Amino acid sequence: MEQIGRIPLLGASPVVDCGRWPAKAFAGEVVPFEVTAFREGHDAIGVRLVLTDPDGESRVLPLAEAAPGTDRWRVLAQPDRAGSWSFRFEGYGDEFATWAHNAATKIDAGVDVELMYAMGRELLTAAASDRSRPAAERRYLTACATELARPDADRRALVDDARLAQIAAERPMFTLHAETETMPLRVERSRAGVGSWYEFFPRSEGAKKRRDGSWSSGTFRTAAKRLPAVAAMGFDVVYLPPIHPIGRAFRKGPNNTLDAGPNDPGSPWAIGSAEGGHDSIHPDLGTKKDFAAFLARARSLGLEIALDLALQASPDHPWVTEHPEWFTTLPDGTIAYAENPPKKYQDIYPVNFDNDPDGIRAEVLRIVRHWISFGVRIFRVDNPHTKPVAFWEWLIAEVTATDPDVVFLAEAFTRPAMMRTLAKVGFQQSYSYFTWRNTKQELEEFLTSISAETADYLRPNLFVNTPDILTEYLQFGGPAAYTIRAAIAATAAPLWGVYSGFELFENVARPGSEENIDNEKYEYKPRDFAAAEAEDRSLALLLGILNGIRRSHPALGQLRNLVLHHSEDDAILVYSKHLAGEFTTTGRPDTVIVVANVDPHSVRETTIHLDAAALGLAPGAAFHVRELITGAEWTWTEHQYVKLDAFTTPVHILEIVEAPDDV
């Protein structure tokens, strides 16, 4: 085992499982790089980061102690493009800093005065002889060394000379040197880390009920008419449930019943019929040409389409007859259907990845590349936790090796170890526990986890609802609950999502479940969005405002910068996001403060206590804020009274702005 060096460099970050997998970032993300570094005695040390881009070009960034006396050093860096980056830390004995500190202390105390000047002269003379330094810098060092030898000169001022300190910071004067091994950083495109998702079923958009009670399905042509409204609300990604043919055998009827009628469409996740499987389009939706036109319309509106990748089959899927070995045959000769007790999915056969793994891998890779050929670059993966992790690691690596811009979202509401490992092996995004974190304490713990504990590898997509999830908070919280959840999701993480119907406050659950009654998974559900907006029964305007706020404030496009603040009320959640000017396109800092009453049934008033440093402010200073939903403006302090009425104004989203001259 290699012995520890004279300047130990320990606990490097970001590192995932000791480097087994690369840490992750997205283009434009501000990443904290940290390491613990120290040496024996009292001499000063310096630490720097060497960050190398995909072209092999390196830049060197000095680290500063995160907090005095902790020996933990930190610097923020912003990888600006996708690709394979790498980094290492270097530590060194900082001879100039050691001399400057000792000289200032001793000279001011009248101790070893001439010795200190002599030591400084030797140090600067040696640095001036380094021909790798610019000529002007060498001349300045020589001049300073000469001055230190002159008793009649103002030698004491040179100890604190700003230019000397800058020279020493840019090109340190050191003897001892240590460095870590080089570590990987995988930087992916910005959409892998920042985006607003909207989910809808294309078959419901334009669906019409006939007089005899049967339905005509919506198509890609009719669904395309919904896209402008989605874009107008500011969403970036439209996610479609499976668009493939649906099996007839054991088809589910309304509300997940087992007795489907002849006109019931069935669940899109029961994939496969005589019309085809995962590489086919449901005939009711149209043709592949229609799908291509749908994609083109989305692109023209600035939207990306995400497709569902559900690796399972209905009993009618071509796989069942062509590859029966891909499923589990029970002792009675039947094929095992999917179960998640107490839920049963008789219309779905899960794939057995232990049977013919090479054949299954080849088929899935073929399917993914088939849809990539249409221009699809985002896949929402259904239940990845029920498939081997090694399979996903292989598939994502194979796909991104040829198409590095492809994004996979893991829909895995499962145990933390599995969720986190799926992210480590390659999933660019992950569903999270956000839907079930509703109290102030629950949310504070959750936000700390996603922004600090797992941010090096897991990017949470904060969906507020899904076809499977209608929480009690939404069922019984009224419109205030919908406003609160949307505001927190849109500001707490760079990724968030909405399932269609959320903006209409759909809150009636099927008895005994967390699912909407008359669930769209099993039937057509056309919605009259225009009428709801005209009658002020829609949250669409707020969703548009939230997405507009996200686009206007780069601080909200970051995950790791969330800071919790204190409030004296157990229902008032307070957090902020700050981005220094060096990381914004304008050069100006950006700060957003969110204050939310998470109890949708109450009026709350309290005092909140803000950490000024986390806001980029000097302690004790008053500052001007603008409420980004209402436009109201106030002057605030670190200790601020707030009143939040869940029935009128449950949330403040504030930006810090320059105060007008008359304030």
TrEMBL record:
EC class of the enzyme, as a word: transferase
Family: Belongs to the glycosyl hydrolase 13 family. GlgE subfamily.
Residues binding alpha-maltose 1-phosphate: K252, Q312, D347, N383, K521, Y522
Chain positions of site Transition state stabilizer: D468
Role: Maltosyltransferase that uses maltose 1-phosphate (M1P) as the sugar donor to elongate linear or branched alpha-(1->4)-glucans. Is involved in a branched alpha-glucan biosynthetic pathway from trehalose, together with TreS, Mak and GlgB.
Glycosyl hydrolase family 13 catalytic domain segment(s): 195-531
Annotated Pfam families: GLGE_C (PF21702), GlgE_dom_N_S (PF11896)
Protein name: Alpha-1,4-glucan:maltose-1-phosphate maltosyltransferase
Active-site positions on this chain: D382, E411
